[in-house]
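--- STAGE predict ---
source: upstream dedup step, 1 unique chain passed
mode: sequence only
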Amino acid sequence: MASPARPGGNVTGLTLLFVDEGGLMAYGPSRPDLYRRTAAYVDISTHAGRVNSDSGPSRPICPRPTKFEFVIDVKAARTLALAIPATVLVRADQPIE
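--- STAGE serialize ---
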């Protein structure tokens, strides 16, 4: 991944992994929550991995995300000489130092 400090470098992403790799911030669906909710759609009583056939057309195969995460890497912001407002830091689920 290109560093945010270099021209053309990415500063935002969709997952926490992006911030772990040096990105500035990420906003996207909470994967643990999405995986937990998807498990309810799998019928384990008949055959492992078979999607529940009782769902019908009104119930989607994969649930839509309902919980989102906002992560900011404060250290990367300091490296880029960016001042993150306190109101934004308060809204972040995980401000990483």
